[in-house]
Amino acid sequence: MKHLLFAAGILSATSAIAADKPELTVYTYDSFVSDWGPGPQVEQAFEATCGCDLNLVGVEDGAALLSRIRLEGENSDADIVLGLDTNLIAAAMETGLFAPHSISADYTLPIEWTDTTFLPYDWGYFAFVHNAETTVPSNFRDLAESDTKILIQDPRSSTPGLGLLMWVKAAYGDETPAIWEGLSDNIVTVTKGWSEAYGLFLEGEADMVLSYTTSPAYHLIAEEDASKAAALFDEGHYMQIEVAAKLKSTDQNALADQFLNFMVSDAFQSIIPTTNWMYPAVTPASGLPDGFDTLIAPEKSLYLPADEAAGAREEALSEWLGALSQ
Amino acid sequence: MLKLEDIIIATGDFTLAADLTVAPGSSVAVIGPSGAGKSTLLEAIAGFRDLRRGHILWQGQDLTDLPPGKRPVAMLFQDGNLFPHLTATQNVGLGLRPNGRLTPSEHEQVQSALSRVGLADKGARKPAELSGGQQSRVALARVLVQQRACLLLDEPFAALGPALKAEMLDLVAELVSETGTTLLMVSHEPEDARRIAAQALLVADGVAHAPMATAELLDNPPPALRDYLG
Amino acid sequence: MAGRAQPVNPWPGISAAALVAALILGTLAAVALRAEATRGFGPADWSALRFTLSQAALSAGLSVALAIPVARALARRRFTGRRLLIALLGAPFILPVIVAILGLLQVFGRAGWVSDLLGLIGLPPVQIYGLHGVVLAHVFFNLPLATRLILQGWQEVPSERFRLAAQLRCEGFALFHLIEAPMLKRVVPGALAVIFAICLTSFAVALTLGGGPRATTIELAIYQAFTYDFDLGRAALLSGLQLVLTATAAFVALRLSRGDGFGSGLDRAIRRWDGTGRAARLGDGCWIVLAGAFLMLPLASVMISGLGGLMHLPIQVFQAALVSIVVAAASTALLLALALPMATAIATGRYGIVEITGILGLAASPLVIGTGLFILIRPMVDPTALALPVTATVNAVMALPFALRILVPAARQSVGRYGRLALSLDMGERAFFTRILLPRMRPQIGFAAGLTAALSMGDLGVIALFADAEIATLPLQLYRLMGAYQMQAAAGAALLLLILSMGAFWMFDRGGRWHAEA
């Protein structure tokens, strides 16, 4: 009914109805709040303990999320931003809008986490996903030499797209332009976002698609389909760590801290694997769901710390544009 | 009395001058070569064209700056005299109340006007369901209820066959004489002019001349008209 | 006859145009004013401009070139199902972009039907990605529009001329030269300019099918400026550039076309006496079959792949469908409230600026309008609370150019034909509008409303900028399903969207023509 009221343009003051409870507003990306994302379960679990109203606001993707925060500036409605990744942290810090936290947790990340402003809540490795029966290259050089066709996302409009740039940069440094030139004839097309690329891959438009090592887990667990696999690259896999932070301007300081604590607790972390299809930042006591054990485990984790990533971003983008625009 | 006081109508490089009077209740045929400005003259009287100079008066009242609907003038055009999406009754009703609903007594007026033109039982039909002659009758019924002192006809019956056209002109003649309406009608056929208009005025060479007896004008045509009549 | 000869009050239309201009230019200004230092245009932006112009020119040229034989074949052939085919030909135009892309790829992709066929005879798969893929998709979207515009031209050739030509035994090229070429000379430039303007703002099509960053359009550059660089100044500059380009194309289109609509009466086949030869009949048949297949196969593939998912759609998809229906209805109501007075004002022939304003919607970047509105609304109310009204508004403004093109010729005709009569009856402006214009224009109003409802239903619009977890339109829910790996459900949702869009269009269009007199 709420939908209808809204839809009819009758602006039912939902916040006013719940005015007796404090409200915590969390900005995140759209797929987090979707009915198939972690949002609904997270909201239910947190509201069961906080005596508050958790208001999740979805903003397209990580990059758009940061733009929204910059747009709103110091009088943002958000108390917490959840869904930036390590490639965006430096730009986020530059805004000076985020407040440090005092929360510690036993992260099960492949790297040590020391950032005092941003807290990780999940992570994953970028990887090329393919149909299990096909044989695929085991690194970028082999890929470039092969006839394997790949689908990737545009780094200017997509988080995985930017992640791939960082991956190649972290693995090959100065040789990056040559790698991209080699890859250019393997790339079928570059899509706006992950969904389009993955959709095209499932339609059979390419042999591999840029996604995550955890993608096959979705097919295995949700669809009982073991036909998808992630290609293990021997130069290592770039990590994406997704983070959240409190805004300085929050008027719900204690509640925000409570949420961040909740975020690294079992209640939140156990929701992540089968809704966000990523590794939890703190493996819950119950462990990972069945099926995650079948996933490939990269021997080497590639990762550029936030400040290096920011520096490498411009260069990597222009190398990418240069190699693929010819 | 309809008085065109030293008027000049100008569009582009075409100009038409007139300085004449038409007696109230008279019927005047407007004749002249094609393109001479017969329709233009009628449109100016009806208020669809601005004057460059001069005044148009009716019974001493200056009409020059009145919008078309406020003039004591009804006009029928060559086509588009009825709204195709309205019934005959509704079309006639517009003559009484263009902006609202009819009162019961106005409804009666509409009904009797339709009866007068012989369409008592056709009120519910739309123009597409009426013959050409019947459509003309509906338009005339509307002119009747409008009760304007002047009626201008810009060849509204041109598309009808000769017999039907004659019938319509006779109906017009009857109606204007019943109501004492002043009639100006553009005419291409000398017979039409003779048939219902005692007077005729010639439009030629940029001038609309004063009306004179139709028979006299047609029997002794001035050169411009002679060429046209052949 | 100017000066006093029209029973029309232009002020509501001028006010509506002012509102639209304020929305489009005001949001642009809001973004520009909010901007900090900008790095201005770089070489990448100029190459985006070049690519945008060349793909739009190619798309417009090819759409129109193909539309000519198709329209000619449709104009002179009568066959069972002709009416249905012409109606269905309109479908791609109202198809949500993402749905259309997936449909196109299922037919023309590397693993598509055509590639499968080629594989059977040992040929390599189709290479669809690249400039030609972008053009192919734009032709898919715009061939129906071009065909309708040109078919309209053919229908307006008086049948007496074909009769005369038949008398004179004028056939083939001579007939073309005598009757058809002059008509095409009048109709084609306008069609070219309209499609060129539509293709200028392409984003997802260009990126997905373009095969790489070579295929960067201005709209993508705007997106990049917003989210990747957070350079609002450059976003505003690029958006201004896009507005100028589109306004220019629109101006040219208006000057070149006589303002004909692409409206009703297209299902009437004109009796012709030429083209009875076997070759001509075969040629026309080929064109109709090819165009039909090109436009219908992707639709068919959307239907086929959606059927499975349609049975198992989650309840949220139906809730979103309900929201979309309400948004589409609101959008349509708003559109009519803007477009009808504007069309009336334009019909007086004195307010060309109103017409240009209406066309700006074609050029406005949804991202700029959305962000601008966000900046403007936020100091007053929570923008997410206004997500649906804002979406409906933006959708209405985006549909305005098409609605005006449909409504203006009809308004012009009614004012021209009945204006004097209404004046001599002393009919007021309001009465003329409600008693004459509205009923006279009903078929066109139905068509415009149907188009708007369908476009609004299928368009993602600005909802993604404003939505919270509580509300979602069907296109947004479709993207969310895709984002959650639920491709099958997404295909089902796409089919539902297609059904709703077509249904809304059919309902309004039919309603307009119900019992309408010629």
TrEMBL record, chain A:
One of its GO terms (cellular component) is outer membrane-bounded periplasmic space. The keyword Metal-binding does not apply. Belongs to the bacterial solute-binding protein 1 family. The keyword Transport applies. GO terms for molecular function: thiamine binding; thiamine pyrophosphate binding. This is Thiamine-binding periplasmic protein. CDD domains: PBP2_TbpA. Residues 1-18 form the signal peptide. It comes from Roseovarius aestuarii. InterPro entries: SBP, ThiB, ThiB-like.
TrEMBL record, chain B:
Coiled coil: none annotated. Its EC number is 3.6.3.-. Residues 2-230 form the ABC transporter domain. The keyword Cell inner membrane applies. One of its GO terms (molecular function) is ATP binding. InterPro entries: AAA+_ATPase (IPR003593), ABC_SmlMolc_Importer (IPR050093), ABC_transporter-like_ATP-bd (IPR003439), ABC_transporter-like_CS (IPR017871), P-loop_NTPase (IPR027417). Keywords: ATP-binding, Cell inner membrane, Cell membrane, Hydrolase, Membrane, Nucleotide-binding, Translocase, Transport. This is Thiamine import ATP-binding protein ThiQ. The lineage of its organism: Bacteria, Pseudomonadati, Pseudomonadota, Alphaproteobacteria, Rhodobacterales.
TrEMBL record, chain C:
The chain crosses the membrane at residues 53-74, 86-108, 128-151, 187-212, 232-254, 287-311, 317-340, 352-377, 383-408, 445-467, 487-508. It is a multi-pass membrane protein. Residues 49-253, 321-508 form the ABC transmembrane type-1 domain. GO terms for biological process: transmembrane transport. Its main location: membrane. It is found in: Cell membrane. It comes from the Bacteria. InterPro entries: MetI-like, MetI-like_sf. The keyword Transmembrane applies. Keywords: Cell membrane, Membrane, Transmembrane, Transmembrane helix, Transport. GO terms for cellular component: plasma membrane. This is Sulfate transport system permease protein CysW. It comes from Roseovarius aestuarii.
